[in-house]
Automatic annotation (TrEMBL), chains A, B:
It holds the Pfam family Acyl-CoA_dh_M. Residues 280-443 form the Acyl-CoA dehydrogenase/oxidase C-terminal domain. This is Acyl-CoA dehydrogenase C-terminal domain-containing protein. Its cofactor is FAD. Residues 160-268 form the Acyl-CoA oxidase/dehydrogenase middle domain. It comes from the Bacteria.
Length: 591, 591
């Protein structure tokens, strides 16, 4: 299946919506259009020529375990070499360890492109990026020197080991043990499951980050520490030593992402090295999880982009039926699907979501850069608040978009050969891993909303209000964009008020509405991004920009989102206000 | 995976909501609780003991084509013998040909049970039922005598051949040719694709109903006729003769329903017999399609029922986290998932949909019985109006429910071994085949709404209004059920008015909202069924019925649907009223 990176749209968001190169975030000054464009085009080329052609074949072939060795699908190894050669994994990582130290917003845009081209493949790199980030944040100087250069270069890859058969979300229950040794290392014993990129044949070594319980930490999550457990032990000179006591028990048969080896990992007295503080493993792991949640949010919409592109091509080529207002292809046997209003409705749902999501995620990455590069606590608070929305909302809607794209193909969409089933199957996991979306909603309502005395959520409302106030003199913008945004934002505030009033008395009253709140929040975020995008598009048109069609399309797409998606906020609010009673009233045995 | 037929709920709908045995529809008098219960329990036993155990293995193994012969998964043949032995296919078919002539409502209830247990398997029977129904409706006496007994007994099975590689919905484009022969038969040549149950090893013969173009019929759908093309020709004495010129080109690799052989069928001068009138094939095929659309609507929710049952079991057994209001399983390592509000929200979404859908479909079957057995044109008009709603709405929501059930399992839901992926993959096809759901919406808004001068839709509103008026004195019913129903019904009427006012000027204004209208209509239908169910449950409680817990659960579940699902009608209306502009404004090249 062919894939073309949406570099034009990315450029619009970077240069015209977020105006990155004039931002005061350190490092943003160099993000001039020519520079960012060169990076995105290069990523697009790799995606189109190398990664996308392996997407369907990787799905069909899957990974296999033979005599303890994991083999990835045909072609993955060569593609991984190309990924390494491009230095993509180090794009936003420190130069001291071989990275390029660019802002994370660039890594984010490139990440969307690679995920779209081949999500299962890109996870080998993505998990390594998260693992090395955790080592850089919590490791000793020696650990950083040992692991970071090799992992940034992708000579070695990384994994994250949390889940065990009897617990996923509730990590306090883990049983994997870490026994301290005289030399300061630990022996790790236990079983971890659902380990993405757990092993493979594309790198010399695999560096596992493993949550385990060392003696003396107490019950529950307090007893958890984080350990570095390499597949091959590393000598002091950096060369590889003997095989460590970690092996692959099996590769799971999954609904999708077949090209990624999801492994059962067995640790049998494996040598492990404490990463960060003893008994503070959860907080170290959160570094990795937060990045991973954003990454999964990106996957959520990115996997739907090639599905949309394929659906558009099919809708223009497949001749079926006639336009109700008169034949548009009178010399052919029928009109193309795209003349039909319901096909349009479906495609517009996808398009308006995808572009809104892209702007939202890049804004999120800009907040992250501001938080890290300017040590800006407000930005840190805001992206922390938005992380569960990005993860939960974008993955739910991304799956919906992929399913919608599949629907355009009719019966052909259900046949594996066509490739549309894969997008839906792959997208499905994004709603589940890195905290199922219900857990994201719980995190949002139970933790993030009240964090720091509610400052982050207040700041969010100020941004929305500020934007509306600043622009309400613009009539066109006001009617089509600001009014719907104002109404949606009011619904979000009303939902927050309801939680404050009722949640105090009964926490279930808030938590019964948490999922709806996450979606309500998501719509307001996309509404804000569309309003900002519309303003930028209007400005370009007023300045007689060359590419009028692009900006007019942008405005029409935004109007669609505002008119047809934002009204959902009222339903979410109505559900939230129905409270705990409908949700909680049945005894368990009544189900 | 285990499955228990929801016979208690079916009994409630039959006896207390629809009050079948006191209905004046011919044949309904015998539907006493003891009688219907015996049938449902027997079907439940077959489903639980024979069909459900083959569901996952059938998915894993799939069908295979070897030297032109199609083999079904291990165990299917024996199960098919059990299905035959029970006489289930003839439940509502004429006694003259070996059927039992029971009302279709019983076949419908039994159908739900079999689909839930094993959807892919049940399609072999289901398609045969549709095909023999078409022969009974349009065949000559000789054709009926030749085919009906063998097909009702399932010695022979049936298929329906419409789609060709270049056309599905737009059948006017078909290229399969029928050449008349001197003996009155035809020679059929062409290729048909996506033929469910196209061939297999469980029956002596397969009777294909094939759409083809015979000379002299003109362009488009007017030139189409319907033919009976048996796999083996049938001698006058009913014995099987030589193999006909029809063969399986391949079995498609699909996203789901792997246990059903979806075949490419090649017709190479195959002998065919005209069924019904020459050049009137489309209207004959509609007999089959209408039944098939209802059957797919049943599949839509039925496939989600075992997924719900599995999710409930998992939510009660899996220990993860603690209730926010205090531990409920303090002696265990954690509380069961079911204590968490968002898990409840998810399960209640499924439960309230499934029970509402069941009542809706059984009401639809009762309308069908009234139409056929009492020759009631009003009932015929109403079920014709509701058919696209049953098909489109119940399959969209059924898929959503199956995906939600899968979500309860977290990462385990994504692993094929658990079985939850299969429910989602199987459910996905129901939104596509027998007319993709966009086509159902088009049928509803473009055809059914205005049919017979709008009489059927007026009749529907009268039923809703009548029920509200009749019961508004009942305060409890009024607040929780009638008020929300009234509001939703008002939204539906407003949408209809919008279509009338705007659709006249621009048909795209109506068709841009067709999908939302289908969903809006679906919610009003389920709202009506919940209001009726609530009334019946209240009556039972007032009459000191033994099974109080059942009725109280019914009321609580209904309240959930009304409070949390019906508010969606406002969003659908808002979208509809946004008209054609947002949907249609982009030129095709802007996508």
């Amino acid at each position: 299946m062919s894939y073309t990176a949406p570099t034009r749209d990315m450029q619009f968001v970077l240069n015209e919506v977020l105006e990155v190169s004039s931002s005061d975030v350190p490092g943003y000054g160099e993000l001039e259009p020519d520079f960012t464009s060169a990076i995105l085009e290069e990523a697009g080329k790799l995606a189109r020529d190398v990664l996308a052609p392996l997407n369907a074949s990787g799905d069909r072939e899957g990974c296999r375990l033979e005599n303890g060795v994991v083999y990835t699908p045909e072609g993955f190894k060569a593609a991984f070499e190309a990924m390494k050669a491009g230095g993509w994994n180090g794009l936003d990582l420190p130069e001291a360890y071989g990275g390029q130290n660019l802002p994370t917003i660039m890594y984010t845009a490139v990440g969307e492109i690679f995920v779209s081209a081949n999500m299962a493949f890109n996870m080998y790199q993505g998990l390594t990026h998260g693992a090395v980030g955790t080592i850089l944040a919590h490791g000793t100087e020696a650990q950083k020197a040992t692991y970071a250069p090799k992992m940034i270069s992708l000579d070695w890859t990384g994994t994250m080991n949390l889940t065990e058969p009897h617990c996923g979300t509730d990590l306090g229950q883990i049983r994997t043990k870490a026994e301290p040794q005289d030399d300061g290392s630990y022996r790790i014993t236990g079983q971890k499951i659902f380990i993405s990129a757990g092993d493979h044949d594309m790198a010399e070594n695999v560096v596992h980050l493993v949550l385990a319980k060392a003696p003396g930490g107490g019950e529950g999550t307090r007893g958890i520490s984080l350990f570095i457990v390499p597949k091959f032990l590393v000598h002091e000179d950096g060369s590889l030593g003997r095989r460590n006591g970690v092996s692959v028990g099996k590769i799971e048969e999954k609904m999708g992402i077949h090209g990624n080896a999801t492994c059962v990992m067995n640790y049998d007295g494996a040598v492990g090295y404490l990463l960060g503080e003893l008994h503070r493993g959860m907080s170290a792991m959160f570094t990795m999880m937060n990045e991973a949640r954003l990454a999964v949010g990106i996957q959520g919409y990115a996997v739907a982009e090639p599905a949309y592109q394929a659906a558009v091509t099919y809708a223009k080529e497949r001749l079926q039926g006639r336009a109700v207002t008169g034949a548009e292809n009178p010399s052919g046997p029928a009109d193309p699907l795209i003349v039909h209003p319901d096909i349009r409705r479906n495609l517009m749902d996808q398009k308006s979501f995808l572009e809104g999501a892209r702007a939202f995620v890049l804004w999120g990455a800009a907040l992250l850069d501001r938080a890290h590069r300017s040590d800006d606590a407000a930005a840190e608070g805001l992206i922390s608040l938005l992380t569960p929305v990005i993860k939960g909302f974008l993955t739910d809607k991304g799956f919906e978009a992929a399913v919608n794209a599949q629907q355009i193909f009719g019966g052909h969409g259900y046949i594996e050969e066509q490739g549309m089933s894969q997008f839906a199957r792959d997208a499905r996991i994004t709603m589940i891993y890195e905290g199922a979306n219900g857990v994201q909603a719980l995190d949002l309502v139970g933790r993030k909303l009240a964090a720091d005395g509610g400052k982050p959520v207040m700041a969010f409302f100020e941004i929305v209000k500020g934007f509306i106030k600043e622009n309400e003199g613009d009539e066109a913008l006001n009617a089509d964009f600001l009014e719907p945004l104002k109404a949606a934002s009011k619904d979000l505030q009303a939902a927050g008020m309801y939680f404050m009033a009722e949640g105090m008395k009964n926490p279930n009253a808030a938590l019964s509405g948490s999922y709806d709140f996450m979606h309500l929040f998501g719509h307001v975020c996309l509404g804000l991004m569309w309003a900002r995008s519309a303003k930028a598009a209007q400005a370009a048109l007023a300045n007689a920009a060359a590419d009028r069609a692009f900006y007019e399309t942008k405005l029409a797409t935004g109007r669609y989102y505002m008119a047809r998606q934002l009204p959902l906020t009222a339903t979410h609010l109505a559900r939230i206000r129905s409270g705990a009673e409908p949700v909680m009233s049945l005894p368990a045995e009544a189900f």
